[in-house]
UniProtKB/TrEMBL annotation:
<dbReference type="GO" id="GO:0045892">
    <property type="term" value="P:negative regulation of DNA-templated transcription"/>
</dbReference>
<dbReference type="InterPro" id="IPR029016">
    <property type="entry name" value="GAF-like_dom_sf"/>
</dbReference>
<dbReference type="GO" id="GO:0003677">
    <property type="term" value="F:DNA binding"/>
</dbReference>
<dbReference type="Pfam" id="PF01614">
    <property type="entry name" value="IclR_C"/>
</dbReference>
<dbReference type="InterPro" id="IPR005471">
    <property type="entry name" value="Tscrpt_reg_IclR_N"/>
</dbReference>
<feature type="domain" description="IclR-ED">
    <location>
        <begin position="53"/>
        <end position="236"/>
    </location>
</feature>
<dbReference type="InterPro" id="IPR036388">
    <property type="entry name" value="WH-like_DNA-bd_sf"/>
</dbReference>
<keyword id="KW-0805">Transcription regulation</keyword>
<protein>
    <submittedName>
        <fullName>Putative IclR-family regulatory protein</fullName>
    </submittedName>
</protein>
<keyword id="KW-0238">DNA-binding</keyword>
<feature type="domain" description="HTH iclR-type">
    <location>
        <begin position="1"/>
        <end position="52"/>
    </location>
</feature>
<dbReference type="Pfam" id="PF09339">
    <property type="entry name" value="HTH_IclR"/>
</dbReference>
<keyword id="KW-0804">Transcription</keyword>
<dbReference type="GO" id="GO:0003700">
    <property type="term" value="F:DNA-binding transcription factor activity"/>
</dbReference>
<dbReference type="InterPro" id="IPR014757">
    <property type="entry name" value="Tscrpt_reg_IclR_C"/>
</dbReference>
<dbReference type="InterPro" id="IPR036390">
    <property type="entry name" value="WH_DNA-bd_sf"/>
</dbReference>
<dbReference type="InterPro" id="IPR050707">
    <property type="entry name" value="HTH_MetabolicPath_Reg"/>
</dbReference>
Length: 236
């Protein structure tokens, strides 16, 4: 809540109200956080802001999880070489979130993906690629607790999804044949972290006429090559 009020910060009274706490309780908790350097207080205004230790924690996490700078050239190359829109998505729990995009030169675009958009694993090519490379036990657990059909339709039933997972494992790349938006196709390939876990995915999206066979295999093969390069860079 303090962070949401940056850069001006927030008063003890404002934070207590937002958290549903008594003001003395909120002040005691804020003082404890300040002692650890997680938040800071302006002595002139009495307002609380984020502290220096949060910056250090964020910088440490970025070294492990933020691969945008390493991936930027790869995503740009994909867009330039194919003419399609290229993306990097990151796994966040049971979802993927798009964190990087580059528009291709082809004038028609699908507009399904954009930075910040989230999809459940198994929805869109990036999430399908990541899910296909998880251990079978984790896939079973995920499909056991998540029902995608109410929002995404019968094309995302467990049976249909398992068929697409088998196909993805056979080719190495995932295909979304216009299951989210009519006429909009996507192809994705998983990117692996240092522990050989599928943590990200590269993907291309475009209109259906641009994703027909045999270009479909051409794009999938290129994605696999670029994903292999990026995975190797992350392990170095």
């Amino acid at each position: 809540m303090v962070g949401a009020a940056e850069p001006t910060g927030a008063s003890t009274t404002e934070l207590a109200k937002a958290a549903g706490l008594a003001r003395p309780t909120a002040h005691r908790l804020l003082a404890s956080l300040a002692d650890e350097g997680l938040i800071d207080r302006d002595l002139a205004t009495g307002r609380w802001t984020l502290g220096p230790e949060l910056y250090l924690l964020g910088a440490g996490a970025a070294n492990r999880y933020d691969i945008i700078e390493q991936a930027r050239d790869v995503v740009t190359q994909l867009a330039r070489e194919t003419g399609e829109s290229a993306f990097l998505s990151a796994r966040r729990g049971d979802e993927t979130v798009c964190v990087l995009s580059e528009e291709g030169s082809f004038p028609l675009r699908s507009h399904v993906l954009h930075v910040g958009i989230r999809f459940p694993l198994g929805v869109a090519s990036a999430g399908l690629a990541i899910l296909s490379h998880l251990p079978e036990r984790e896939v079973d657990e995920y499909l056991g607790r998540v029902d995608l059909t109410p929002r995404w339709g019968e094309s995302h039933s467990e049976q249909a999804l398992r068929r697409r997972l088998e196909s993805t494992r056979a080719t190495g790349y995932a295909v979304n044949p216009a299951l989210i938006v009519e006429g909009s196709w996507g192809i994705g390939a998983a990117v692996f972290d240092r522990n050989a876990r599928p943590a990200w995915a590269l993907s291309l999206t475009g209109v259906e006429t641009r994703f027909r066979e045999p270009r479909h295999r051409e794009l999938g093969t290129l994605l696999l090559e670029k994903a292999h390069v990026l995975s190797g860079q992350l392990k170095a």
